[in-house]
Amino acid sequence: MDWGPVITAGITGIVGLAGIGGTLVSAKITRKSAAENLRTSIGAEDERARLAEKRRIYAQALASLTAVNVMGKEERLRLPRPVLLTRSFSLLRATYGNWP
Predict the structure, then answer these.
(1) List of residues 6+ apart from 84 with CB closer than 8 A
(2) How far apart are CA 10 and CA 17, in angstroms?
(3) How many helices and strands (H and E) does the chain possess?
(4) Which region holds residue 85: left if phi is over 0, alpha if psi is between -120 and 50, else beta?
(5) How many alpha carbons fall within 13 Å on the CB side of residue 23?
(6) Which among 36, 57, 84, 95 has the fewest CB atoms less than 10 Å away?
(7) Packing angle of the helix pair 81-96, 4-78 (nearest 10 deg)
(8) Are 88 and 97 in contact (CB under 8 A)?
(9) Contact 84, 76 (CB under 8 A)
(10) What share of the chain is helix, strand, coil (3-state, %, to 5)?
């Protein structure tokens, strides 16, 4: 019997199985990488959303403080000084209670 074709067929079979195994390993690595990329992408999107919400709250607070500041300046210009001081102390007492 001539062993050449048998050995060649055996080696070809082994190489074929190794190729299938390599493909499976490659698919597994790709799947893990894709899952990790998805987690990273979702985490990055969550971080962007969190920062956008912080910026929105900060802008709203800044606008409110600016409006209060403008109203306070208008109030000071409109009222005589003794009335302004009385209102200021009344507001402090209402907010923080009686204090010396």
Answers:
(1) 75, 76
(2) 11
(3) 2, 0
(4) alpha
(5) 6
(6) 95
(7) 130
(8) no
(9) yes
(10) 90, 0, 10
Contact 85, 79 (CB under 8 A): no
Residue 26 is which amino acid? S
Residue found by looking up tokens 């990273």 in the block? 40
The helix/strand/coil state of 51 is: helix
- Residue 34 exposure: Cα atoms within 13 Å on the Cβ side: 6
- Alpha carbons 27 and 40: distance in angstroms, whole number: 20
> What is the full per-residue pLDDT of the chain (100 aa) written as tens digits?
787 888 888 888 888 889 899 999 999 999 888 888 888 888 888 888 999 999 999 988 888 888 887 777 666 666 555 555 566 667 666 766 665 5
Q: Residue 80 gets which letter from DSSP?
A: -
